[in-house]
Amino acid sequence: MNRTYSVFFSIVFGLLLLSGYALADSATITRMEGEVFLLTNPGKSEPAPGGTLVSYEHQMYTQRSAKPGDRMEDGNVIRCAPDSKVRLIYENGDVAEVFSGTSYLIRTAQKAGVPQTSVQLHFGQVRFVISSQGPRKHLSVRSQSAVMGVRGTDFIVREEGSKGSRVTVLR
């Protein structure tokens, strides 16, 4: 009987740790202006409640209007309409500011036990302020014409289509 409780509590504790990791690596929308969309549930054939099923980059997503307090999880896409912008803050204080006309996808994976976050910038401009000691200290950013690794800094990356990508390091 005690062994059953021990196994049960081990499983529950493990699930709590995993869910805590997922939450710690998700970003929260803290401020936004204009029309911002959150694409969630990649690969599903039915939309989540309150959303519309859309095709984006050869994948099906549930699209809905974003609002402050929403969390951007692994595999989600955020899209800012023209004249819109949004600020995302991670629990450790890392910041992503997504500007007008921007769309990007975020992915998180484990490599040798170390979290690896990657951003696929499809178009537009994003400013990141990343701690060199935080969970995104090995952030990689991909665009149509560039791949870059970040080791903690304040930078802006802009995808300009046929003109290529532009990176500005602020500190």
Describe this entry's structure for a reader.
By secondary structure, the protein is mostly beta strands. It is 13% helix and 48% strand. It has 1 helix and 14 strands; from the N terminus they run H-E-E-E-E-E-E-E-E-E-E-E-E-E-E. It has one helix spanning 2-24; strands at 27-33, 36-40, 52-56, 59-65, 71-72, 77-80, 85-90, 95-98, 103-111, 114-129, 140-142, 147-149, 154-159, 165-169. Strands 1, 2, 3, 4, 5, 6, 7, 8, 9, 10, 11, 12, 13 and 14 form a 14-stranded mixed sheet that branches. The longest helix has 23 residues, at 2-24. The N and C termini lie far apart (58 Å). Mean pLDDT is 81; it is low at 5-24.
Put the structure in a nutshell:
This protein has 171 residues and is mainly β.
What layout of secondary structure does this protein have?
Layout: H1 2-24, E1 27-33, E2 36-40, E3 52-56, E4 59-65, E5 71-72, E6 77-80, E7 85-90, E8 95-98, E9 103-111, E10 114-129, E11 140-142, E12 147-149, E13 154-159, E14 165-169
Parallel strand pairs: 10-11
Antiparallel strand pairs: 1-5, 1-7, 2-4, 2-6, 3-4, 6-9, 7-8, 8-10, 9-10, 10-13, 11-12, 13-14
